[in-house]
Amino acid sequence: MVEIFGNIREIYDFTVPCGELLPFIEFFSESSAEKCERYFDAGHDSVTMFESWTPTFYINLTGNYTIDVGGKRFTVEQDRDILILRNGTVTRYNRPEDRIFTVKFYPGGLEAVLGLNQAGMSNRVITLNGLLPARLLSLLKDASCFIERVRLMENYLLTVMPGKVSDHYSQMVGAAIGEYTNSGMQLNTSEIAERLFISSKSINRYFNRVVGIAPKSYFSALRARTALTAMVAGSNSFSPVDYGYYDPAHFYKDIFKFTGRKISDGF
């Protein structure tokens, strides 16, 4: 199953973090035995996800699984937990019995909470066992349910997170993403920099420092993801112009670059 084109969330439970973590974490999730039994045969033996530049923890609760990152295939053993950046297309190969607990951070969120900069994580599968306490990982695996795992992870992150996140780079990147989103994705990088009273050179430096990519490239991926999601959800009312595209041809070209698929091929 392919993200956006299909509902990859069918076999997972989801919840958002507590208020203090909301600016930094998009969601917690866990594959559900009940939902796997109900939906797994509908294409969930593999899940392909497009670039989002969102650092993500995968806490392995059961056996081995396979994942493609950066054009390479990795086997993740039962006792191994990983962190990936999702800077490109990622495919995870599932079995109905797999159980994985996931923490998905916003761009820059991992650094704000744990002090781990994501800029050097591209195309890597990083072992979490050296980044999170062994005791925490053990408690997460032994926990009785998804909600208990969420509570354990939240408590740990709140304990280690600085009382006030004041990193100037991260704050400016967050503000820039907010300006871009609130404008209906109509602004270019120079216009966003002007609104934030910084130079184009500075906003490029901030994004490369915090996210690991230039703002123009990040905004392009964000727009493609958002516009494609809207098109799939309601194609009759969708207009690419509403998302800053010049015309349909501009949109189609961008979607092919983002997904490797042509809109004309159907979804």
Automatic annotation (TrEMBL):
Matches recorded under Gene3D superfamilies: Homeodomain-like (1.10.10.60)
MF terms (GO), sorted A to Z: DNA-binding transcription factor activity; sequence-specific DNA binding
Any Pfam family: HTH_18
Top-level taxonomic group: Bacteria
Ranges for domain HTH araC/xylS-type: 171-267
Protein name: AraC family transcriptional regulator
Lineage per the UniProt record: Bacteria, Pseudomonadati, Bacteroidota, Chitinophagia, Chitinophagales
